[in-house]
Amino acid sequence: MSAPVYDRVALIGLGLIASSMFWAMKRAGLAGEVTGYARSAETRATAREIGLCDRVCETAAEAVEGADLVVLCVPVGAMGAVAEQIAPHLKPGSTVSDVGSVKQAVIDAVGPHLPETVHFVPSHPLAGTEHSGPRSGFATLFDNRFTLLVPVEGTDPEATARLRALWEGMGANVEEMDAEHHDLVLAVTSHAPHLIAYTMVGVADDLRRVTDSEVIRYSAAGFRDFTRIAASDPTMWRDVFLNNKAATLEILGRFTEELFALQRAIRTGDGDQLFDYFTRTRAIRRGIIEAGQDTDAPDFGRVLPRPAGKTEAGKTEAGKTEAGG
Ligand SMILES: NC(=O)C1=CN([C@@H]2O[C@H](COP(=O)(O)OP(=O)(O)OC[C@H]3O[C@@H](n4cnc5c(N)ncnc54)[C@H](O)[C@@H]3O)[C@@H](O)[C@H]2O)C=CC1
Ligand SMILES: O=C(O)C(=O)Cc1ccc(O)cc1
């Protein structure tokens, strides 16, 4: 058990990510008191029933009162409204963060509402499941997964270092990245693949004669993975696509071009083109495995390289320093 990184943490939106953060913080003793707020009375009741948060509050204002760290864990499209609601109640010197899957749109929506007396350090854990809601979280979700920090210009490095210590304490490998790059990388590794999975499952469903039991019964692992991903929360994913439009459309455009090229190779019987293409993609997968990354876990973020100079030892050292302060 380490010393708390923050005395008081407030979680706004009590779903998969907030509940996983709560259990991960408790596991390592990273926070003194954790308050929580969710918009729906039903979610607040569930949270109280399962012991999610030390104190579940009736308003967002009450939850953030006196908090040293406030983490917005709501769908990307709701971040701005929540920031506006809590802004007058934030403690000067505190840090506001979020866990949204898109960064530039969240920075644009949240930043203008925050008083100059608070630090804004956006974050994104590259870990999740297709489940949502307060009962879906678990303490090990972030273990050995990347969390990306996206500090905005002029952010106090100490506020960033402290948040890094929290994520490392929750088991994550932390990297920093700018918002534009983040949104492009995630469009390739997570957002476009989700849209493709949604589409593939939709296509299978259109072929009614193979649906009912047959799709699942006879599906190989690939299609099963698609159905798992396509079971993800519709609100969350609607907001991701509406808020990472440019990067997602750019990647889907390239995807469509390649798909057409492969379609043509099939039609014309160009086996060499198909073979060469599959040989290249196989090498990419093998490169990931040789780099020592666990490819069984459904974590698209694992293709991100660790920048030169960052070592496990360095990471642990930073975590210890911050946790002690
Ligand atoms: N699900 C995943 O695998 C991952 C999700 N994220 C991001 O984390 C954030 C939260 O996602 P999850 O925890 O999966 O969602 P979730 O659906 O499990 O929980 C979201 C919570 O926010 C509440 N909420 C929605 N609108 C609200 C509002 N206006 N005011 C207050 N509460 C509101 C919902 O009632 C729910 O309790 C999203 O921004 C998502 O993009 C990041 C990494 C992984
Ligand atoms: O469940 C999966 O396969 C995921 O890809 C989880 C996930 C969803 C959204 C994110 O922003 C990060 C991770």
Automatic annotation (TrEMBL):
Metal-binding as UniProt keyword: no
Domain of life: Bacteria
GO BP: tyrosine biosynthetic process
Uppermost EC category: oxidoreductase
Keywords, comma-separated and alphabetical: Amino-acid biosynthesis, Aromatic amino acid biosynthesis, NAD, Oxidoreductase, Tyrosine biosynthesis
Pfam families according to UniProt: PDH_C (PF20463), PDH_N (PF02153)
GO MF entry, a single one: NAD+ binding
Similarity comment: Belongs to the prephenate/arogenate dehydrogenase family.
PANTHER family cross-referenced by the UniProt entry: PREPHENATE DEHYDROGENASE, PREPHENATE DEHYDROGENASE [NADP(+)]
Protein name: prephenate dehydrogenase
Protein source organism: Pseudoruegeria aquimaris
